[in-house]
Amino acid sequence: MLTYEVYQLKVQQFGFINYIYLIIDKYTKKTAIVDPSWNTVTVFNLLDKLKVEVDAILLTHSHIDHVYMTDALLQRYQNAKVYMSDVECSYYNFFSRNLIRLHDMNMIRIGETNVTCILTPGHTKGSMCYLLEESLFTGDTSFFRRVWDVQGTRCKCL
After folding, report:
1. Residue 70 belongs to a domain with what CATH number?
2. Which of 61, 63, 81, 139 has the fewest C-beta atoms lying within 10 Å of its C-beta?
3. Which residue has the higher pLDDT, 98 or 146?
4. The whole model's pTM is what?
């Protein structure tokens, strides 16, 4: 039996469509949010409706469309931990309050739910995926019909 539930939010800003994921531990209600991009009101309304608080922010990489809401979340959930790969933080000079730098195959817990952190360079130098029992959160590890160079500066069509 799974120890967690996943909620997907499709959000849009500046013509970009992104997906934000909530991972809620069924036993403790501890919650992680993956790649909080935008639409703060929509996200906060869902968190309120579910009666959960964010304990962890899992960032797959440092592009603005994956980290934009991090500060707003930390204003509301001051003790939430922010997770990103050490490679990503170092290479792109990323910093956030409550930042925990991860390495390949580190394990973290959201309540009773185990998360394996997998370094997956490609989209950016320090991209990271998060593996749960039956879920894999990949960020922009793969695009349909487009890829980014390792520096994350140019889009090339395949």
Report:
1. 3.60.15.10
2. 81
3. 98
4. 0.89
Q: Of all helices (H) and strands (E), which one includes residue 12?
A: strand 4-13
98: containing domain: 4-157
What CA–CA distance (Å, rounded) separates 154 from 158? 13
Q: Strand 128-131's sheet: what is its strand order? A: 107-110, 113-119, 128-131, 136-137
CA distance 68 to 82: 13
The tens digit of pLDDT for each residue in 44-53 reads: 999 999 999 9
Number of structural domains (the chain) is 1
Q: How confident is the model at residue 141 (pLDDT cuts 50, 70, 90)?
A: confident
Q: Please tell me the distance from the alpha carbon of residue 152 to that of residue 10, in angstroms, as a whole number.
A: 23
Classify strands 81-85 and 136-137 as parallel, antiparallel or unpaired: unpaired
In whole angstroms, how far apart are CA 143 and each of 34, 103, 113, 138? 18, 24, 28, 10
> What gap in Å lies between CA 109 and CA 103, rounded to an integer?
15
User: Length of the chain in residues, anyone?
Assistant: 158
Banded model confidence at residue 122, pLDDT cuts 50, 70, 90? confident
